[in-house]
Design the sequence.
């Protein structure tokens, strides 16, 4: 009987593993890695990923007196989340029916895969530094604007760009395309099956994820309190500096209403081309990551870097410069990013065998390590089943990620 139970649960685990890959939509499109479990244990489940290098240009024949480019090795911290689990019990009666086992395996796979997609989407939605604000309904031209903003910042067109539309905005875009007779077969697909093609250079996906960006409160009158910018460094004390973000000090009667997730611009602070440093003429957009000191100290991304090889803006944030908040209405976002800007890093827990519970491990086709532990209790007549996965979601470069935010005022 014990061998029969093990075989039954093994088949359920196989169903779980197969269903897991099928349920992943967003996570399949992120860069993935599998750090050494030993190294992660010794590092407290935190590791660092290197960002790209940049350089300055010096003009002239004799450059002996020129200031050389600083070689700054920039790293981004990646931290594992607490493990995600599905736990359930099957009693001795339920175990008689193979459908119970199969369906619970499939349900477990769908739930854990959905959790990873949800958390990855939420991470991008919270940190994306390109914000396309749309008054009214979304349409394909908003993604053309997103592509223009990426190109103007030096995010080359030879890198794959991916866009993920929430179901409601996807339906609006499909309707828009369905009404365009000159698009031929694509109009027909949009009309009949709500299917849209890749848009404006983006590989386009429909997702069932909804990451809402809530409306900003009353934040009028918020200004910069003293000129501010960020100096890129390799280390802060004994750990690498997280140069993606900085603390921004603001002032105004309504600063207590500022919250994490808010998107804003700063008067006079434009985005620049990340390589040749030319002014794009477009205001840089910033995101609030956290709020302290009653709203006067904001941790924001990206950091304001006004000089040097990692310059990303045309000027420092000047004293008394006005902040303009973009998220006026609570709406779901549509996320997009360039390949390499977003990572999904998987880990593996060491569940021992022969210590009471039986343990099965597997790696999906997408490279996701999965664990199932099960144990039968003869006193209760129940088998406990635990499905587990461990991972980290990270935005490596917020300036190469964005959101389209429709329905704003």
Sequence:
């Amino acid at each position: 009987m014990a061998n029969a139970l093990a075989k039954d649960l093994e088949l359920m685990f196989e169903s779980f593993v197969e269903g897991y890959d099928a349920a992943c939509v967003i996570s399949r499109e992120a860069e993935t890695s599998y750090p050494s479990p030993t190294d992660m244990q010794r590092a407290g489940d935190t590791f660092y990923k290197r960002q790209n290098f940049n350089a300055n240009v010096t003009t002239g024949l004799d450059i002996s007196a020129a200031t050389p480019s600083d070689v700054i090795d920039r790293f981004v911290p990646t931290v594992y989340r607490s493990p995600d689990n599905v736990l359930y019990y099957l009693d001795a009666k339920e175990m008689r029916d193979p459908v119970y086992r199969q369906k619970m395996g499939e349900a477990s796979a769908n739930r854990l895969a959905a959790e990873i997609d949800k958390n990855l989407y939420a991470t991008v939605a919270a940190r994306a530094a390109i914000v396309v604000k749309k008054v009214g309904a979304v349409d394909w031209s908003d993604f053309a604007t997103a592509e223009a903003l990426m190109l103007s910042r030096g995010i080359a067109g030879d890198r794959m760009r991916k866009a993920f539309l929430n179901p409601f905005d996807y339906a609006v875009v499909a309707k828009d395309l369905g009404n365009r007779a000159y698009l031929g077969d694509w109009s027909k697909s949009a009309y009949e099956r709500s299917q849209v093609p890749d848009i404006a250079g983006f590989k386009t996906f429909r997702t069932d994820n909804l990451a809402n960006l809530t409306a900003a409160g009353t934040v009028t009158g918020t200004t910069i309190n003293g000129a501010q910018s960020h100096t890129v460094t390799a280390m802060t004390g004994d750990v690498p500096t997280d140069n993606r973000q900085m603390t921004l000090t603001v002032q105004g009667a309504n600063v207590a209403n500022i919250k994490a997730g808010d998107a804003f611009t700063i008067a006079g602070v434009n985005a620049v081309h990340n390589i040749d440093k030319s002014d794009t003429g477009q205001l840089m957009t910033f995101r609030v990551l956290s709020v302290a000191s009653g709203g006067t100290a904001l941790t924001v991304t990206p950091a304001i870097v006004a000089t040097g090889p990692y310059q990303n803006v045309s000027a420092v944030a000047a004293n008394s410069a006005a902040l303009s908040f973009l998220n006026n209405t609570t709406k779901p976002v549509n996320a997009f990013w360039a390949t390499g800007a977003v990572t999904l890093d998987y880990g593996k827990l060491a569940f021992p065998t022969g210590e009471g519970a039986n343990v099965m491990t597997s790696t999906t086709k997408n490279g996701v390590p999965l664990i199932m532990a099960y144990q039968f209790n003869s006193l209760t007549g129940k088998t406990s089943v635990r499905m587990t996965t461990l991972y980290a979601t990270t935005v490596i470069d917020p300036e190469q990620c964005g959101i389209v935010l429709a329905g704003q005022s």
Summary: Confidence is low (pLDDT under 50) at residues 186-195.
